[in-house]
């Protein structure tokens, strides 16, 4: 692949520097007070909530250790992911839905530049109910259903088992985040009771001959509630530091998960917390794998700042929007190059 394919070339301002900034990096938070407790130790939980609050405010990103997800399960999923992607393109292309989601695909664009990656998406709930289209006046719904990969054996079972763990961890993190905002621990659960739209993504970034021009994933913010990411030892994820807008490499930490606040938490918190821009670099020698779990609410969730957090001094900064409509709009625009930027939450910002 000597020729440079222009579809992958980032605008000059988005091209990555290949030298690495080794900064102190995002906070690492030990979750053992909520995972390994018999009788809850309230002072340990209180200080954990404070750590979460400052990580969400200062970075929008953090890593967690002692999270309760069995390492053996993660290793089994990582191994199966490698075996899956090692198949031929023809074989992988069989594992796809007509809509291009969920399943295998290799043509995703971020901000209209093609990403140097291939992915496999798998829904948390099968089927997942979503709006028929992004038209606000159309109440029609449709279903997304999971593919059934036959190879490697037990792939589907491993993925399902792993998703269950991601949901458990997701709910625990949401409790900590709710407490850190000063609202009830279970405040966010109502948005997940019906028609959760979460999904697991397996990312494979093959070696790239021009890593100074292309990106595995271009700069973006995650649009859902929370992302729980497992990255391998190769590294490549960079986060835009809020204090000085520098791209900071997130150093791979064995058996840790990287958590990032998505756009919906930014809105629920009325901008107290911010969904932070990030991207994934590629390199000439090593392939890289990463596994994000996008923890998303029911399609009919109306996204707006929490009533407890707004008042005359701190009025709502956003007009409400329907999550499902946003999701479907994004899915329609992610697989082709368009002339305009796709939908972002600032489109809902009040003047
Ligand atoms: O591969 C990574 O480290 C990040 C992936 C990512 O940001 C995404 O898939 O939304
Ligand atoms: Fe992301």
From TrEMBL:
GO molecular function (one): metal ion binding
Domain of life: Eukaryota
Domain Fe2OG dioxygenase: 196-297
Pfam name, any one: 2OG-FeII_Oxy
Keyword annotations from UniProtKB, A to Z: Iron, Metal-binding, Oxidoreductase
InterPro entries: DIOX_N, IPNS-like_FE2OG_OXY, IPNS-like_sf, Iron_ascorbate_oxido_reductase, Oxoglu/Fe-dep_dioxygenase_dom
Assigned protein family: Belongs to the iron/ascorbate-dependent oxidoreductase family.
Listed name of the protein: Fe2OG dioxygenase domain-containing protein
Species assigned in the record: Trifolium subterraneum
């Amino acid at each position: 692949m000597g020729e440079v394919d222009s579809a992958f070339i980032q605008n000059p301002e988005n091209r990555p520097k290949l030298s690495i900034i080794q900064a102190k990096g995002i906070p690492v938070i030990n979750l053992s007070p909520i995972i390994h407790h018999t009788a809850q130790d309230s002072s340990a939980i209180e200080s954990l909530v404070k750590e979460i609050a400052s990580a969400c405010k200062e970075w929008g990103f953090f890593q967690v250790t002692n999270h309760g997800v069995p390492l053996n399960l993660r290793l089994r999923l990582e191994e199966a992911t490698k075996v899956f992607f090692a198949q031929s393109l023809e074989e992988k292309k069989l594992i796809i839905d007509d809509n291009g989601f969920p399943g295998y695909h290799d043509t995703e664009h971020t901000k209209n530049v093609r990403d140097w990656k291939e992915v496999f998406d798998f829904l948390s709930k099968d089927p997942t109910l979503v709006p028929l289209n992004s038209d606000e006046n159309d109440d029609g719904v449709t279903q997304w259903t999971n593919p059934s990969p036959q190879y490697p054996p037990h792939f589907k079972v491993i993925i399902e088992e792993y998703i269950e763990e991601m949901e458990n961890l997701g709910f625990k993190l949401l409790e900590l985040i709710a407490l850190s905002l000063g609202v009830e621990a279970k405040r966010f659960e109502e948005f997940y009771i019906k028609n959760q739209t979460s999904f697991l993504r397996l990312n494979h970034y093959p070696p790239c001959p021009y890593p100074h021009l292309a990106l595995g994933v271009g700069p973006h913010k995650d649009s859902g509630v929370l992302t729980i990411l497992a990255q391998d030892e190769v590294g490549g994820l960079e986060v835009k530091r809020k204090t000085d807008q520098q791209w900071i490499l997130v150093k791979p930490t064995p058996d840790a998960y990287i958590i990032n606040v998505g756009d919906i938490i930014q809105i629920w918190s009325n901008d107290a917390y911010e969904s932070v821009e990030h991207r994934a670099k590629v390199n000439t020698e090593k392939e890289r794998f990463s596994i994000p779990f996008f923890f998303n609410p029911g399609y009919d969730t109306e996204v707006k700042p929490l009533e407890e957090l707004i008042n005359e001094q701190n009025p709502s900064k956003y007009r409400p929007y329907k999550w499902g409509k946003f999701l479907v709009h994004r899915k329609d625009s992610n697989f082709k190059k368009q002339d305009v930027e796709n939908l972002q939450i600032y489109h809902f910002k009040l003047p």
